[in-house]
Design brief:
- This protein is mostly helical and 344 residues long.
- It folds into 3 domains: 5-104, Herpes Virus-1; 110-149, no CATH class; 231-343, no CATH class.
- 60% of the residues lie in helices and 8% in strands.
- It is built from 8 helices and 10 strands.
- It has helices spanning 39-48, 69-77, 98-104, 126-132, 158-269, 275-297, 301-309, 316-343, and strands spanning 8-9, 28-30, 36-38, 65-66, 79-81, 92-94, 109-111, 120-122, 137-139, 147-149.
- Strand 9 and strand 10 form a beta hairpin.
- Helix 5 runs antiparallel to helix 8 (316-343).
- Bound molecules: zinc ion (ZN) (5 copies).
- The site of one zinc ion has 6 residues, from loops.
- InterPro entries: Znf_RING, Znf_RING/FYVE/PHD, Znf_RING_CS, Znf_TRAF.
């Protein structure tokens, strides 16, 4: 929509008129056919047409261009009256500076700046309106801190207002306290549940450990019993070993005495008796001791058999052979015993 031709002072070239609205061009655009239009006019024209409204030549939005510079200058230099001339504004300015003037024209109608006030006043009368506007606000003169609108200033009661505010704050606080209480309770609940769970878990673990402990105690008792037994056996074996060693010590001197004894006997009794018989009696004692030891500790049948045999009326040669066998058997026993002791 262009500017009303009536508002212009002086002659306006026909080329500066819009081909659609026939008013003076406002934000002009030019077609390739050199016809010019207001931007709004040609845009709405081209919605339904595809040609120049003047000469019907084909036209689309894309082919529109800005007005020639000389035409734009002519247009900008045109003298126009203020849009508020009806209200009393007598300003006449160039079309170029029209918007600047209208933005600050004293006769322009503007809205009251107080929120909620529907009044529209001329810019020059705004101050007068603000001083008596019903929507103006100011702080309570009694110092309650409330901002009052001029309309409800007469009904304002500081105490009642403050009381209401306190009530509101109290309600808000109670709400918050309740919220916090509920949150704490739920947190405590969850912690309690967790503790109960943990407690039962620990109880189970304690029970398990108790079981393990009793098993270990059982094992330990068994081991202690076994150890006592072993110690006893060891002491017994030690005793036997000592006895056997003594026996061995006794045996060795006897063996070394044999030839001497034999010689002495030969001198005393002559060759009537064989030295074998003399030898026979002494070792037999040893033999008996050894055998009794065997019987007590090992219960060897062979050893028993030997013990039973005693001094036999058999020939001396046989007796000597048997004696030799017994001695070797005794040595075997000693060896075995000492081995047992070592093992223990
Ligand atoms: Zn127009
Ligand atoms: Zn045209
Ligand atoms: Zn004006
Ligand atoms: Zn107002
Ligand atoms: Zn007040």
């Amino acid at each position: 929509m262009g500017y009303d031709l009536e508002r212009f002072v002086g002659y306006v070239n026909e080329d500066l008129l819009c081909c659609v609205c026939r008013d003076v061009l406002e934000r002009p655009l030019q077609a390739p056919c050199e016809h010019a239009y207001c931007s709004a006019c040609i845009s709405s024209w081209l919605v339904h047409h595809h040609s120049c409204p003047e000469d019907r030549l084909p036209l689309d939005v894309g082919s529109l261009k800005p007005l020639y510079r000389y035409m734009r200058n002519d247009l900008n230099r045109l003298q126009i009256r203020c849009v508020n001339a009806g209200q009393g504004c007598e300003v006449v300015c160039t079309l170029e500076s029209l918007h600047t003037h209208e933005d600050e024209c004293e006769f322009a109608f503007i809205s009251c700046s107080n929120t909620g006030c529907p009044v529209q006043v001329e810019r020059r009368g705004l101050e007068a309106h603000l001083s008596e506007c019903n929507f103006r606000s100011r702080e309570c003169p009694n110092g309650c801190g409330h901002t009052l609108l001029s309309t409800d200033q007469s009904q304002h009661n500081c105490v009642a207002e403050l009381r209401t505010e306190v009530e509101m704050l109290r309600a808000e606080m109670l709400c918050k306290v309740e919220e916090v209480r509920r949150e704490m309770e739920s947190r405590l609940d969850s912690q309690r549940r967790h503790m109960v769970q943990k407690e039962s878990q620990l109880k189970n673990e304690v029970e398990e450990l108790k079981g393990q402990l009793s098993r270990v105690m059982c094992d330990m008792r068994a081991l202690l019993g076994a150890e006592r037994l072993r110690r006893q056996e060891l002491a017994e074996a030690e005793l036997e070993k000592r006895e056997l060693l003594e026996l061995l010590k006794d045996l060795q001197p006897t063996r070394s005495q044999h030839p001497v004894e034999q010689a002495a006997k030969d001198q005393h009794q002559g060759a009537q008796q064989t030295p074998g018989w003399e030898l026979h009696t002494k070792p037999t004692r040893h033999q008996q001791r050894e055998a009794s030891l065997h019987a007590s500790s090992l219960s060897l049948h062979s050893a028993q058999a030997i013990t039973v045999s005693g001094p036999p009326p058999s020939p001396q040669l046989g007796e000597g052979a048997r004696k030799g066998g017994t001695r070797s058997l005794t040595l075997d026993c000693i060896k075995r015993k000492s081995r047992e002791v070592t093992v223990i």
